[in-house]
Fold this sequence. Notes:
416 residues, alpha+beta, Helix Hairpins, BirA Bifunctional Protein, domain 2, 3-stranded mixed sheet, 12 helices, 40% helix, elongated
Amino acid sequence: MLDINFIRxxxxxxxxxxxxxxxxxxxxxxxxxxxxxxAVLKIVEDLRQQKNANAAKLKGVKGKPDxxxxxAGKEIKDQLSQKEAELxxxxxxxxxxxxxxxxxxxxxxxxxxxxxSVEVKAWGEKKKSGVDHLDYAVSRDWVDFERxxxxxxxxxxxxxxxxxxxxxxxxxxxxxxxTEAGFxxxxxxxLVSSNVLEGCGFNPRTSDQSDEYFVEGExxxxxxxxxxxxxxxxxxxxLEAKDLPLCxxxxxxxxxxxxxxxxxxxxxxxxxxxxxxxxxxxxxxxEQSKEMHEKILSIEENIWQDLGIxxxxxxxxxxxxxxxxxxxYDIEYWSPADxxxxxxxxxxxCTDFQARSLNIRVRRPDGSLAVAHxxxxxxxxxxxxxxxxxxxxxxxxxxxxxxxxxxxxxxxxEEI
Length: 416
């Protein structure tokens, strides 16, 4: 959430973000609402002063107070009660409006839609052909979508045998990489409250794009990413500048309806309703966030280079950015089966957008307070990584070559 004073002082930049991110928000309506709130707030503050002054007069009276003082006190109390209710209503309405305003974008973010995202760099040799991961995994009896659908519905699945062990090897390898990079490993709740969900800024552009599974009768939703509970970890806290950056790595199941995914690649494991993911998350000082964004990206790149998966890095265009991100990189792996690049991981700099909503601040050495900056990045999204490994490592004899960095976690097997 953006600060209302920031919006007033940087209206052009905020309007640009709204336009380029393709949100429908009226700044005129929002600022008029804030003007009304400020006017009523002034009246409330004046009435509170009058109430205190009248109470002081009554306290100073010896004997029975004058009826006019009592009548004045009652009138002030009634007016104050009415105006405080009006102020509360306006403040709530303003907060709702503020939540609909997306974060501003950095100057180096490309403008336009998904097709306007810019390739920053590429790595690895692109193979000319590859197996279909789903046909391959089914032929090896490694994945079962039919029984997954029988038990939980379409796009749920079971991993079996060596593919399940390969996923575990990826988790162990990923944990080694992120902890060596200074991230503290955490397991996280698989559910968050609506307060945390909204504070993370997961605001779909339209109501039919809501991606979360909500628990009926409870103020809880299943998490779409460990980013959600990790963002809420320091909610309503003041962090010490000397302790920053704080770097966490959360391993969790992720649950997504995949609403609004019509027309996107959905084959097999690539887009499912539940998958496991290792997520990196950072709380830092405002002046540290751009550097930390590049650090997260470098860790992600190093992982895919270790795995030997060809990829490219994309600077995501504004029209394809979510509400919280000021800038986002995607890593897309080369799919030899489809002869195209497909999304694998992402990392975002959300500046102070999430931390302001969840009241996460930093105390500097001079005692002043600032709103923290937050960043997130995918270390390994397990389902899609399995797709990439199968497509790039399946052999002509039907076996799967094990990437060198995963061999220690698979009893040093050369192939499975």
